[in-house]
Specification:
heterodimer, A: 165 residues, alpha/beta, 5 helices, 5 strands, globular, B: 496 residues, alpha+beta, Cytochrome-c3 Hydrogenase, chain B, five-stranded antiparallel beta sheet, four-stranded mixed beta sheet
């Protein structure tokens, strides 16, 4: 079984890069454990490119930043499945003209018979500041990084029978 | 004044928000696209070594890192006063052409094209790449994915990394091309040419053969007569990587041609109280508001603009389509040049002609005997001070301007990004689309979002670096406000 762990975001845009930082953390934590079937990467791309990155993998973990409109709780972590993303997109009209959603891209992949993962897990971390250039995440968001990294490692440890000290 | 807001309500508050202001009579007075300001970029860069800029600026945007990488690399050439070897320029342009092929492909098939392929009146949920596959067939989806795949592979091979390239150096490119790579890329370039020709045929079959679509393209609702900007080579033909910036008037006459480093002499920026983003305009004409015409400094920098600003395409097949484009759309030749086409929806066709040019140019470059020359770096012998680099990004002319101390540490950074050039015309196009559906206070809700989407989508505006974010797309919502600015209606099309 091939697994891809992908941290999404812009690592120089304050909290936007939290997903990338989680991916770095997982990479560091697993550096002494052989994990030939687990690839860990980062990306800052739209739905189509993201879907293309997943081709050939059996399962994918995505870590990304999210801002919710009501009662924001920076640092709060949600574990979601791909269908949850459908519910997050409130309208079919897009203000971003140069992107397609991951959901649309995955539907397309299925339609044309591409080998996409059967399991896609999304860890969404609520963030605060995504409009300012900085390499440092805000404090509440920073606290979530080791937490999410450990959650994903725990899932991987079960799948691959990894022994992590 | 009444106010209508088309508002995204998800991840980034205020992201890509559209506001429409009504006058006392209930007619559209003005319409604006608001793009959030990303703060502190200059401060982030100052104090860092300038040679980091190609790797920092390619992080600004998840859509066109290659364009920023290239503009930054060229700015470093100027900053360090170093002329890259001839092979290096060709490698960079080859890399950049592969990027253009992927970028224009995704826009036509996944974003702009579905409006036509599915039809402007089709449900929004179907006007996407899935709808295209449904209508045209599964094979088309495979062609799109394969085109992106082979060109991403080229970008990775030449740029050192798949998503954020790292190969650009002042006066150089970090790796030469092997003969094996050349052979592989040559095959890909040939496939790209075939794919571009296929796409242009599809456009003819589906769009040009349909009178209703042609009428829509030619309609006043999607027409603006502005100045047009584009980069041209010594023959005044389009070049994406290098050349002079040429601006032509709405009448097609050359208004000015200047070196990218002189941008500040020709371009000024207008400030509006409601927007963080500034509106570039032609300095010598002046800012006269969001209006068309020769006396307004508003200019446009898109695929359509580049065609209008040039005398033609530098590759043979693209030139054939360039001529067909102007002949079909009723443009007359004056003094050997076609008059500009002002129909904004024709930008989609222009983009496909550019796709063909990029593919042909890629093939020319990879077949150049010099392309595998290992001498890809020129030595740096001078102290850095100030440098400006420009390229044509898919979404408009992109300029990077850096200044450093004598150790190459950045002291000043200024960027004019592609979409910014088109900020005023995008607002004008949104206004015109809204005018068609809002009369005397009566708002035709059905279709307003569709029309506005079509109006701004042809510019392919890039909402910067949050494009990857959950849920991956910025939704639109229309908020209609009364004369006091209070909300009276909210329009959106919810999935659930």
């Amino acid at each position: 079984m091939k697994t891809l762990v992908i941290g999404l975001g812009n690592p120089i845009l304050t909290d936007d890069g939290v997903g990338v930082k989680v991916a770095y953390q997982i990479q560091e934590d697993l550096c002494s454990v052989p994990h030939p079937d687990i690839d860990i990467t980062e990306a800052s791309v739209g739905g189509l490119h993201l879907m293309e990155t997943m081709i050939g993998y059996d399962q994918v973990f995505i870590i990304d930043a999210i801002i919710l409109e009501h009662q924001p709780q920076p640092g709060k972590v949600q574990r979601m499945a791909i269908d949850d993303l459908r519910n997050l997109s409130p309208t079919q009209h897009s203000a971003s003209a140069h992107d397609t959603t991951l959901v649309t891209a995955l539907d397309m992949a299925k339609r044309i018979g591409l080998s996409i993962p059967t399991k896609i897990v999304i860890y969404a971390i609520e963030v605060e500041n995504v409009l300012e250039f900085s390499e440092t995440t805000t404090s509440e968001v920073s606290k979530s990084i080791p937490f999410v990294a450990q959650k994903i490692i725990d899932e991987l440890a079960i799948d691959y029978n990894l022994s992590i000290s | 004044m009444k106010r209508i807001t088309i508002d995204p309500i998800t991840r980034l508050e205020g992201h890509g928000k559209i506001e429409i202001f009504l006058n006392e009579e209930g007619e559209v007075a003005n319409a604006y696209l608001q793009i959030p300001e990303l703060r502190g970029f200059e401060q982030f860069c100052i104090g860092r070594p300038a040679e980091e800029m190609p790797r920092i600026t390619n992080r600004i945007c998840g859509v066109c890192p290659e364009a920023h990488h290239m503009a930054a690399t060229k700015a470093l050439d100027a900053l360090f006063h170093v002329e890259p070897p001839s092979v290096t320029k060709k490698l960079r342009e080859l890399f950049y052409s592969a990027f253009y092929v992927t970028d224009h492909t995704v826009h036509f098939y996944a974003l702009g094209g579905p409006d036509f392929i599915l039809g402007p009146d089709s449900p929004a949920a179907e006007r996407n790449i899935l709808g295209v596959i449904h209508k045209v067939g599964v094979e088309i989806g495979k062609k799109v994915i394969n085109t992106r795949k082979r060109n991403h592979h080229v970008i990775q091979m030449l740029g050192g990394r798949g998503i954020h390239p790292v190969a650009g150096l002042p006066g150089g490119w970090s790796k030469a091309m092997t003969k094996e790579e050349r052979d592989e890329i040559e095959g890909y370039a040939k496939e790209n040419v075939e794919f571009a020709l296929f796409s242009l045929q599809l456009f003819e079959d589906i769009v040009l053969a349909n009178k209703a679509y042609v009428d829509l393209i030619l309609s006043d609702a999607f027409t603006h007569k502005t100045y047009y900007m584009g980069t041209v080579d010594k023959n005044n033909q389009i070049n994406f990587y290098d050349g002079m910036i040429r601006v032509v008037g709405p009448d097609g006459k050359e208004f000015v041609k200047y070196h990218p480093e002189d941008y500040a002499k020709h371009i000024a920026e207008h400030v509006e109280p409601w927007s963080y983003l500034k509106f570039p305009y032609l300095k010598d004409i002046g800012w006269k508001g969001f209006v068309d015409g020769k006396d307004s400094g508003v200019y446009c920098a898109t695929p359509l603009s580049r065609l209008n600003a040039s005398d033609g395409m530098a590759t043979p097949k693209a030139q054939e389509f360039y001529e067909k484009f102007y002949e079909t759309l009723g443009s007359k030749k004056i003094n050997g040049r076609y008059q500009p086409v002002h129909y904004r929806l024709a930008t989609h066709w222009a983009r496909l002609i550019e796709l063909l040019y990029a593919a042909e140019r890629m093939l020319e470059l990879v077949q150049d005997p010099e392309i595998t020359d290992p001498n890809v770096r020129a030595p740096i012998t001078e102290k850095p001070d100030e440098g400006i680099g420009g390229v044509e990004a898919p979404r408009g002319t992109l300029t990077h301007h850096y200044a450093t101390d004598e150790n190459g540490i950045l002291t000043k950074v200024n960027l004019i990004v592609g979409t910014t050039n088109n900020y005023a015309p995008i607002s004008m196009s949104i206004k015109k689309a809204a005018q068609g559906l809002i009369k005397k206070g009566t708002i035709i809700s059905d279709g307003l979002l569709n029309m506005i989407e079509m109006a701004f989508r042809n510019y392919d505006p890039c909402m910067s670096c949050a494009t990857h974010s959950l849920p991956g797309q910025m939704p639109l919502e229309v908020v209609i406000r009364n004369v006091d600015g209070n909300e009276i209606e909210r329009l959106s099309q919810f999935i659930n």
